[in-house]
Amino acid sequence: MKYDVILAGVGGQGVLSIAAIIAQAAGQAGLSIKQSEVHGMSQRGGAVESHLRLADHPIHSDLIPTAYADMVLAMEPMEALRYVPFLSPAGVIVTDRTPVVNIPNYPEAEDVYAALEQFPCSRLVDTVQIARDLHAVRSSNMVLLGAASAFLPLDAADLEAAIDAVFGRKGEAVVAQNVAAFRAGREAASVPAR
């Protein structure tokens, strides 16, 4: 088994927290893990990218080749489109619907959605609204992780345990809020979002 994930977003959206949680859960499941991150200008709203490779055998490179990713997981729809060249023909795209307009020539949101929906397996989830409904605006990344978990080769219980491990130092209330967001995202992914 091998599963490659490209995670993408804009600085401050929690992309690296998602990567840490997936890696923690994979480690607990006994899988090999390789990860590479790019987050140079992320503090100023720039792009954040992480390659995350999981396998039941040794992994020799931490970078995912073009057309090999099993999933593009993006906190923002334009960032999902940016990494589509990495997606394998059978891969899945899971992204938030909420655009982060951080460039002057950002395309119309409906055009971005239409481009993403051309792929055989794409889930555009309104993670920001789901998080708002839970009164947990800062947990939209956990909503997205929940949506992605429907496709990841990891048990939901292992991912929830990893959420506890990553956020545990912030207290039980924060852990509970993030687990609730994760579960809401998992539920949202079960129905195609169009």
Strand content: 15-25%
Radius of gyration over C-alpha positions, nearest whole angstrom: 15 Å
Averaging pLDDT over every residue, what do you get? 91
Content-based structural category: alpha/beta
CATH topology description: Pyruvate-ferredoxin Oxidoreductase, domain 3
User: How many strands in all?
Assistant: 6
Query: Which architecture would the CATH scheme give at its second level?
Result: 3-Layer(aba) Sandwich
Order of strands, widest sheet: 2-3-1-4-5-6
Runs in which pLDDT lies below 50 for 5 or more consecutive residues are: none
Helix content: 25-40%
Number of domains: 1
Terminal-residue CA separation: 30 Å
CATH superfamily: Pyruvate-ferredoxin oxidoreductase, PFOR, domain III
Q: Count helical runs.
A: 7
Report what the structure shows:
The protein is α/β, with parallel strands linked by helices. It has one domain (2-100, 108-189): Pyruvate-ferredoxin Oxidoreductase, domain 3 (3-Layer(aba) Sandwich), CATH 3.40.920.10. It has 7 helices and 6 strands. Strands 2-3-1-4-5-6 form a 6-stranded mixed β-sheet. The two termini are 30 Å apart. The mean pLDDT is 91.
